[in-house]
Please model this.
Amino acid sequence: VRRDKHGVCFAAIWVDDTLLVGDMKAIKKTIADLQAKGFTLKIEHDLDDYLSCEIKIDRAKKRAWIHQPHLLKKLRDKFWNMVKDMPSYVTPGTPHQVIVRKTEWKITPEEQATYRSGVGMLLFLIKHSRPDIANAVRELTKVLDGASPAAFKELKRVIKYVLDTEKLALNIKPEVENGKGKWSMVIYSDSDYATDPENRLSVSGFVLYLCGVPIVWRTKQQRSVTLSSSEAEYYALSEAVKEVRFIYQLLKEMGFDVEV
Model:
């Protein structure tokens, strides 16, 4: 964050990709200062692609969409022949599906390499634009070191769902009255109860919305065995509250007035 007489400029840095957001005079001054220090910059004025994500912005309607067509193309090129004859599904994964680690039936080393590659691609989709597949893929990650034929079949089902819904994108439409006032933060959390037959651990999940836009989502197996569904829900809630606290402190540090 940089504040001076020219205004405020926020810099988001990922390796060698930098996104500048803020007052135009402050952005231009930041660029000029970086160039004066000897940095060679490739400047793109329109934000339409960042970290391999396609970003479409409708300034008139004050909304945007984040999509990952490059990754989806790689997924289609590698897996389409495996899944093209499968039916279309209305859910990312098989309802109530639990992948078991301890099984005598394992796929071949070549299939295991393909399995890890597919799960890795899906995880990157979840990170930026597809929170809807997060829980199904979480199950798949349990057997990255030794999947069963059933787990490999489930991977192909998730990939078929993703390819059938590849036009879906993350919708960004901030709900800030007249662009002023406090930023609102809302989080929803949930859990199941003791669904893993091997360890009886429950699964937590949450989605955090900032001004009506989902900015953080997570699904994760809990680390301890809970003795009731209520305890599992409180565990999930505690994980959600920790994330709220972190985002709240980060936004306050950036100078935003946040209402939880």
In short: The two ends are 23 Å apart (CA to CA).
